[in-house]
Structure formats: C-alpha cells, structure tokens
C-alpha cells in the first residue's frame, strides 16, 4: 500500500514524456573538465530551482495570500496559478497545506516529472548572434523565441527547438547568488565566524532575509524563471492565455518586460517596481500590466516560496 503522501503526489503529477533542456557551454571551458562540470552542475541546479519555485506556488497558493496580492489582482489568481502549473507540471490541491507540500516536494523524482516541451529549449552558457551579453549593460540573460521553429534546413538556426535561453557568463546572479538550498541553509562560509553552527549572515536563512521582499531572496535560478516567462511555448495551452497576454508582432502573444512605467518605478525589475506595476489600471485595450511583466511572476514566486519555507 502506498504511503498517503506518495498517493497524493501521484494525484497531482500530470502525465508527461519528461525531458530536460539541452545545455550548451563555451568551447573554452571544454578543455577544463573540472570547470565544465561545475558550470554544467550550476545550470542544472538553476533549472531545478525554477521548477521547485513553480511547484511551491501551485501547491501552496491562495487568492488571499499577501504574496499574491502584492504582485497581481485577486481576479487574476486562476490564470497566474495556471501559468505556474504549466511550468510545474502538477495540478493544484483542493485544499493547500504547507506541510503536505513539503512531503510532496521531498518525494518526487524531478527528471521523471517534467513536461516534454523542455526538449524545445536550449540553455546556453555562451552568446548567440546577433545579441551579445557584452553589448548590454548589467544583462543576466536573454531569451530568443523562434516562432517559426523548427528550421531543419536553415544553417543560421543550429537548434531546432523554439527557445534559446542565454545565461551571461559574467552575470550578477552567477557571481552573487547561490541555489535555493544554500540560501535557506547556508554552509559555514555563510554563517557567523565561519562556523557550521553559527547564525546565518545577513542575506541567508529565514531571519537573515529581513521582513520584506528584497534581492536577498533571489537564488541563482531566478534568471531562468524570469526568462522562461518570455517563452510562449509552456503557456500556449493555458486557458485565456491569448486573452490576457498582449501580442508581440510576429511572436504572437508573449510576456515581455513592461515599458509604460508608473510614477516611482525605475524599470520593470525587482519587487518594488513589480508592486507598482500591479497598481496600474488596465491598458486601453484591456490588458493587465502585471500579467504582462515577467518580474511580477518572479517576485510572486520568490515571496510565496520564502513565506512558505520560513512560515511567515
């Protein structure tokens, strides 16, 4: 007889033909096996953290949750949860229970529970023409969506999938952030006195992150999560996707970085700016700025994850 939490897991997981994105790493790293293995491991961990964030949102979300209402309107809850459900590849429980979510997350095998559309994504640790990381200041990554994929006869498109996710080599999130697991429970170097049992330093652990949403909450995989919301493929089957997401010329309906900023917002990134974007009214053609800004999804997920993880 299956344990109760394993049975619950089977109920929530959707049928799928699981696959991971393809990874591409610079040629100059291939001669250094140790460094290549490190980068390969980091990229895989970033992807895993993205899936974990999405699954926590699906398993613990509520339309009256402060984390949700900070970044979206209450009426948008079913749509937003469905967007995260597309990434997570699980259905929401009828009665969200944080303890139940922990049991489920600790028992599934990630590789066997991924959606098959990930096979259409190339995650690259090197630039793809014509855009380069060096040409754009403070760029962590970018996503190219090929709406005409596959292109089997076109040499300009070596990848036959529709998504090219480039993670910049010198990005800030690679230098200054760590995976979810280490962020919540740091090793000795993230604790006072460099001691394994020392109190977590500022920016680590539940107490070290402070009382509000800040950059301390960002794991290395945050770039993955942001860029995936620019890729329409996971969301094309989400109900009302075309109704809620604006059209981006040839790319069809696609979430971008919101440009018509409210007073006080410096750009469309970060928790404060995302919160201000959520306070904007609908556009003249009826679209929600929050639903059409990738960072609003990111910060809802981060706020939801850490409030669940830390119980506050």
How would you describe this structure to a colleague?
The chain is of the alpha/beta class. The protein has a domain of 197 residues. The protein has a four-stranded mixed beta sheet with strand order 1-2-4-3.
User: How would you sum up the major sheet?
Assistant: 4 strands, mixed
Q: What general outline do the C-alpha atoms trace?
A: globular
Question: What structural class do the secondary elements suggest?
Answer: alpha/beta
Distance between the termini: 35 Å
How many DSSP H or I helices? 13
Give helix % range: 25-40%
Main-sheet strand order equals: 1-2-4-3
Strands, count = 4
Low-pLDDT ranges: 1-13
Strand content: 5-15%
Mean pLDDT: 86
Q: What is the string of SSEs from the N terminus onward?
A: HEHHHHHEEEHHHHHHH
* Gyration radius from CA atoms, angstroms: 19 Å
Keywords: Signal
Signal peptide: 1-18
